Amino acid sequence: MRFGPASGTSSRPFWLLALIIGSGTLGMHVLAPVLPLIGADFEVDPGRAQLVVSAYMFALAAGQLAHGPLSDRFGRRPVLLAGLSVYVVSGMLCVLAPTFGTLLMARVLQALGGCAGLVIGRSIVQDTSKGGEAASLIGALNAVLLVSPAVAPVLGLWLGESLGWRFVPLILVAFGSIALLGALFLISETGTARAEPARESIAAYWRLLKSGPFMARVFAGSLTTTTMFGILASSPFIVTGTLGRPLSDAGGFYAVLVAGILAGSLAATRLARRIPTDRLILLAASTGLAGSLLLAASHAWGLTATLFVASGFLYTFMSGLMAPLALTRTVAMVPERRGAATGFFGFSQIFAGAVAVTLSGLASDVVVSTAAVMLVCSGVGLATLLVLRVRPSPG
Length: 395
Known about the structure:
The chain is an all-alpha fold. It contains 17 helices and two strands. It starts with a strand and ends in a 5-residue tail after the last helix. The model is unreliable at 1-10 (pLDDT under 50).
């Protein structure tokens, strides 16, 4: 599957776009299962060892705020190549890290480099496709990228146990090197560099953030996409605690929830070209709200495995369907600042996901807190979208 630029001759292979966009998120998942090995190697407690993942996530979110505007000003290609280069070099520093502090520093740099691919890869799609076509392609990319959270931990654990944890970041170096070489030879410039002073770029970014319709789209999109991490994170506790199943069953339930995201992403690739985007967005958000209400009602009646799977699937289906639609619709509002818009949207998504995970585990009854998070996020997201529908924004 290939798609060409609006101008220029280079093709953009689907596999390369998936690798570029997925490089940042792969680094988030693959090291998680070998944290005990890292802690033992550097003689640090589990809390400090988890910084290897949490510090990476925060840097992955924050870095998107910079890469978007930079790619608008200097062009997509130079910022992408620079980011992937940092990703590869810092990955080697992770492999060779003599101390835990060095490893943490390298992980932060790795995230800052990897999120360039996350932002700019999606910006390239927006540059070269429009409307339903862009949403369809991003949906297809999201469907492929869902393999990452499923496969990466298994790969990381196997490498860590077989060869040692340092071979795990070495795999990231290998993938990053392929993405870098592919970008160097197969990706041409799709944006338009602006010879403007830094002050003007900052002012333009500030105007973007002060735009009520834009921020409303970002807000609604974040609430209805990455907040599904809340139910994903709490599902093992619901399966073992509320449903009384063994921990070995948690993987099967988790797989069904991930399948909901995959189904939503695949639905987006088929429906985005046939149904108006705003109508499809409202349908997606309504589906998620239905799942939230089902989980809350089921808990009151007596939660069963079937009801939990059904409610969770509806919510994660919303996330998979909503992700490409919300991004495409939001970025279309500011075509002259696609990079900045994409970067801020990505930051907001990761932030919303992190908050959802935290809040889903606050109550003594995890079903109550998870259902509450789902209801608030899907309900407020849908309400915001309905207001935007009544008062349509340009773009």
